[in-house]
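During the second half of the funding period, the structural biology subgroup turned its attention to how the target accommodates small molecules. The most pressing case was calcium ion, which had performed well in the primary screen but for which no bound structure existed. We therefore specified the complex as follows and requested a full 3D prediction, including the ligand pose.
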Amino acid sequence: AKDNGGSGYRFFTEEMNRKALHRMKMESSLRKALDRNELMLYYQPLVNEDNRILGMEALLRWRHPELGLILPDDFIRITEETGIIVPVGRWVLQTACVQTKRWHDMGYSDLFVAVNLSARQIQESDFEQMVIDIIEESGLPPRYLKLEVTESSVIQNPEVCIAKMKTLRARGITFSIDDFGTGYSSLSYLKRFPIDALKIDRSFISDAMNSKGDQEIIKTIIAMARNLKIDAVAEGVETEAQKNFLASYGCNSMQGFLFAHPVPVDQFMNLLNRQQQR
Ligand code: C2E
Ligand code: CA
Ligand code: CA
Ligand code: CA
């Protein structure tokens, strides 16, 4: 038994070493990823109930030289904990604005782009100026930029966040609360935030057809949005039944595999072209 305990302990530390080593490797290769052009953006359309593309969400991908395409859930945390998210987030914003301006110039001139923000980025003292500089350099009219923030990232320091959001909103930039319903925001709390849309979390949509409870939550969020005179947006829409349910309660924009997966720029162009020919 003593031997087993000993080997169990050794196994445990080896496991920890392995994880720590993996993390260190990830961290050092992430630091180089930007300079090596390994980061790229995929775009996923947001559509109305007639499947018309209203805009797109920019979603980060990492083309790792050995590991292949890595999704954000496997590296965003490390970029946040190390602060690498600050330069990476700036690159995301700049790339998304420049690309959207290109699409505007090609004639798709009413597309908006939604960009995800981490708490860490908002906390930077030059956050607002960074956003303003990037949008001005890109030439994209600010009203076509939607910034997505989560409840948890704005709740840490609400007064400072509200002030920063107001500065950007005065320029025409809009804000959505992402993953909405997973936090604790009450209607009265939400009213203090200068926001333009609630993005209903995917978890409620995915079970909606089997769960009366989730249906009630979705209806409540749509009603909250209406009460606040802002938009309700649904993410993770995968079936016609989900789409019809959402549309019947007045959810005015949707995103999900039913319409399209996130895709690189050239494939997003195909989606736009196909729509124009219809
Ligand atoms: P999110 O902001 O909630 O983005 C939506 C996620 O749902 C995306 O995952 C998208 O691919 C996925 N999705 C879209 N439609 C469907 C569907 O119908 N079914 C299912 N099962 N999934 C769907 P992705 O691209 O892996 O991104 C994961 C998360 O990583 C994002 O969640 C966001 O929180 C974060 N993220 C992505 N890009 C960035 C970025 O540039 N900056 C920051 N800070 N976070 C990012
Ligand atoms: Ca998002
Ligand atoms: Ca989500
Ligand atoms: Ca999210």
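Two results from this model are relevant to the next phase. The chain has twelve helices and nine strands. The pocket of C2E (ligand 1) is lined by residues 44, 59-60, 71-73, 76, 89, 92, 116-118, 178-179, 202, 235-238, 255-257, 262 (CB under 6 Å).
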